[in-house]
Specification:
Order of helices and strands: EHEHHE
Helix content: 40-55%
Strand order of the largest sheet: 1-2-3
Largest sheet: 3 strands, parallel
Length: about 80
């Protein structure tokens, strides 16, 4: 078993993370670290359920970093 892996949003539009990739990562790694934005976090709560996410967080097999700020550049002519 590998020690840890960090996963961030996989696609800019549509489904933010493939749940199969997440499940495989949780199977093969001791700790899975997710870097989530608001859409990815809400997707995980909707699809996995809050109880499942809380259980994985309490076990220490899942760690989540929430990106509150969305950095960007705006150009005005």
């Amino acid at each position: 078993m590998f020690e840890s892996i960090c996963i961030r949003r996989q696609q800019q539009s549509g489904v933010p993370i493939d749940l199969g990739v997440l499940a495989e990562a949780m199977l093969f790694y001791q700790v899975v670290h997710l870097v989530c934005d608001d859409e990815m976090f809400m997707f995980l709560i909707r699809t996995c359920g809050s109880d499942t996410l809380l259980a994985a967080l309490e076990q220490g097999t899942l760690k989540v970093t929430y990106l509150e700020n969305k950095l960007g550049v705006s150009c005005h002519d």
